[in-house]
Amino acid sequence: MTMILFQNATLLDGSADTALPGHHVLVENGEIREVSDRPITAASARAVDLAGRTLMPGLIDCHVHVIATMADLGANAELPNTLVALRSARIMREMLMRGFTTVRDLGGADHGLVMAIEEGMIEAPRLVICGKALSQTGGHTDYRGRFHHRDVEYYGDKAGTLGRVVDGVDAVRRVAREEIKAGAQFIKIMANGGVSSPTDPIAFLGFSNDELRAAVEEARNAQTYVSAHLYTDEAIRRAVECGVISVEHGNLITPETARLVKERGAYVVPTNVTFDYLAKEGASLGLPPASVEKIEAVRGQGMEALQILRDAGVMMAYGSDLLGEMHRHQSDEFILRGQVLPAMEVIRSATVNAAKVVRQEGRLGVIAPGAHADLVVVDGDPLADLSLLTGQGRHMPAILKAGRFVKNELNA
Prior knowledge:
The chain is of the alpha/beta class. The protein has helices at residues 73-76, 81-97, 111-118, 169-181, 209-221, 233-241, 255-263, 272-281, 289-294, 296-312, 333-338, 343-349, 352-357; strands spanning 3-11, 20-28, 31-36, 46-49, 54-57, 59-64, 100-105, 126-129, 133-135, 163-165, 187-190, 226-232, 246-252, 267-269, 375-378, 398-401, 404-408. The mean pLDDT is 94. This is Amidohydrolase family protein.
C-alpha cells in the first residue's frame, strides 16, 4: 500500500472560482482518498509539506499528434514504423514532464502505444486515441500531392500517417468500424481543408452530409462521438447539424454558429499555438511552401474566436496540435488564451473541461476523492501568472501520475 499525504497545499483545479489555500490531500494506491481543509491523520503515509505551493490535477491536452515527429506530415508518413514509435515515446515523455498527464490524440496513434503506456514500457501521459482520422480523397491527411497517384491503402498501416482516405458512405462506415475495432475511443473526421495537406484549400468542405452522418451514426452505435477538423463557419455549422460533438480549431466561427454549437451541446478545442509557431518556424522545419501560405487564413481570427465562443457560453478545452520539433511549445497555449480569457477559464480548459472531453469526469481534471492521483505541484500562483505552466515544467517541482512521482524535486 502506497500512501502520500500532501499538507498545506493551495488547491487549483477549476471546480471552484478561486484557489483554495490550506488544504490537505491523501493519496492511496494511485487514487485520491481524502481532501480536507483540516489536517488529515494517516500515520503510515509519506508526508509532503507543500508550504502553500499550488497543487493542481495533471493537465490534459485534448488535441495532440504524438506520431507527428516531423512538421512535413507527408514526409512523416514515409518513416519506418519503428522509428515513429520510438520518436513518439520521447514526445510523450516530454509532454508528461510539462505536467500533461493525459493527452487526446487526434489522428495517428494506435492501440499499441496505449498498451505500451499501460504496461509501463514507456513513461508517458494517459493516451486517449481516435486511431487514424478519416479523410476524403484530396482532403486533410491525403498527402499524395497533385501528381502522386500511389494507392491510398499504401498509407493505411504506416505509423506516421494521421489518417486514412475513404470515399462514400459505405467506406466511411467500414473504416469507422475498423478503427473502433482496433481500439479507437472516438472517431475523427477531416471535414474542412487544412494547412498541412497539399491539395485542399481551407474553405474546402470535407465529405458529403451523408458521409458525415454515417460517421456520427457509427460512433453513436459504438457509444462514442465524432470529432471534426473544422475552420470555416460553413463547415462548422453543417458538421454540428450532422451530429459532430467535438469541434477542433474553430478559428473562423461566427457568433450565430457559436450559439448553435452551444444549443447542440457541442464544444470547441481551439489550438492557436500551432498556428503561431507554424508561422514562426514551419518553413524552417520543412513545412511545404503551399502550407505556409495557408497559415494566415486562419491564424489571426483564432484569437477572436476565443471571445466569440466565450460570449456564446461554449465549453472550450485545451489543445495544442503541434508537429515535429514544435511540440516543445505545447504549454504556450496557456499564454495565448490568457490574452483573451480570464486565467481561471484557461485553467478549466485543461482540467475540468478537458476531463469532460475525454469522458473521465470525476476521475481526471479534479482534486477530489475517487479521482486518479494525477497531480502537479507548481511554485507560485498560476491564476496570477499563467507562464508558471510553461517552461518545460521548470516551475513544477513535482509531477505524479497514478499516485507515483514521475518528477520530484521537493526534497521530501
